[in-house]
Amino acid sequence: MRFRISSQLNLTVLSRIRIYKYDVIDLQRRLLPPTYLALNEWSGFLVSKIICGLTKLEVADIIKAQGGKMNIYEIEKTTGTKEDKLMLCKDHPNTFRNIILLYEEYSSATQYLAYDLKLQTDNENEQVTSFAKAHDGIEAFEWWALPVNKERQEIFNKGMIEQDSIYGKGLHQYYDWSQYRNATFVDVAGGSGGFLFQLLTRYPTMKGVLYDHPSVIEMSEKISNISTHDHTYHYSYKGDFFINPLPPSDVYFFRSILHNWPDEQAIKILKSILCYPSTNASSSYHEVPSNFNPKLLIAEILIDDLPLLYQLDTLMMCMYNGKERTKSEITELLIKSGWKLTKVTYCKGGFSVIEVVPL
Ligand SMILES: C[S@@+](CC[C@H](N)C(=O)[O-])C[C@H]1O[C@@H](n2cnc3c(N)ncnc32)[C@H](O)[C@@H]1O
């Protein structure tokens, strides 16, 4: 049965529905035999493989080209597949086919899951991730930056833009971005600028800065269909936040960044903002001047809101030694980095916007 839920439904009702949804899942878990549940969860990797395979075969596009009217036997004949249909067309405004295609990187990283689980408990100083173990010792972001992996990096960058399709447009709708309409706004590790571009289109007086690795910035014009020299962008900034100081700004924005890093590195990144860059653009950090009072906005999915986030948590562990965090874990990280949490806004769909100021 399908229910039509009004987009006007208030947030209290929505949070109740979320709670009941997890109760139903919990009930299912209690009623079904444990062997069935274990087998069902275990075979989850097959579902990902099938979905990824169908996306590669462009099954959704084939169905669409036929006017969306193909029965299962026609699909089977045209594509040579025997699986069910899938609505994942390349040109769909809410497509997330690139995230699905990332299955290759994600599944190769989980190859060393057992090693990684041990790493978390036995040897916390060991930095090599499960992903690096599967890729000749090269960490994920470095691996994507290799010229030979340009195609894979494009898939990753497009996939990050597709986060809006997965989590809905809640982040855009349920947070008041207009308060920054006249501010300088650095999207730290903003990928190909998909989020920033939409923000600047809504608020053209905002001075947007896109900061990311050089190879990602170079790809951004192609992927986001925009020019970084457009009036919408103030400028783009190529760098590594562990080495190159972030440009001075009123607001720093991090979306889906902290979960890519273990606590130690996450603290380094957060601390780096409070070190003002030198005027001659050298790579050395300077003490923050007393009048520097930036605001930090962190968009993450909190485990408090989505208790079933364990798949993503496991994935972050295997890919980057990262993790999904609760609100109190993020609060603790912030205090250790010289910041103080002031407000959290839950945006329907998944993301929360955490507002932070210097301690
Ligand atoms: C999970 S993606 C998030 C992208 C974007 N914030 C978004 O939500 O669409 C992580 C981003 O961090 C960038 N990144 C990773 N390590 C970095 C570093 N050392 N310095 C700057 N950017 C980095 C990657 O290139 C990538 O674009």
Automatic annotation (TrEMBL):
<feature type="domain" description="O-methyltransferase C-terminal">
    <location>
        <begin position="123"/>
        <end position="339"/>
    </location>
</feature>
<dbReference type="GO" id="GO:0032259">
    <property type="term" value="P:methylation"/>
</dbReference>
<feature type="active site" description="Proton acceptor">
    <location>
        <position position="259"/>
    </location>
</feature>
<dbReference type="GO" id="GO:0008171">
    <property type="term" value="F:O-methyltransferase activity"/>
</dbReference>
<keyword id="KW-0489">Methyltransferase</keyword>
<dbReference type="InterPro" id="IPR001077">
    <property type="entry name" value="COMT_C"/>
</dbReference>
<protein>
    <submittedName>
        <fullName>Hydroxyneurosporene methyltransferase</fullName>
    </submittedName>
</protein>
<dbReference type="Pfam" id="PF00891">
    <property type="entry name" value="Methyltransf_2"/>
</dbReference>
<dbReference type="InterPro" id="IPR016461">
    <property type="entry name" value="COMT-like"/>
</dbReference>
<keyword id="KW-0949">S-adenosyl-L-methionine</keyword>
<dbReference type="InterPro" id="IPR029063">
    <property type="entry name" value="SAM-dependent_MTases_sf"/>
</dbReference>
<keyword id="KW-0808">Transferase</keyword>
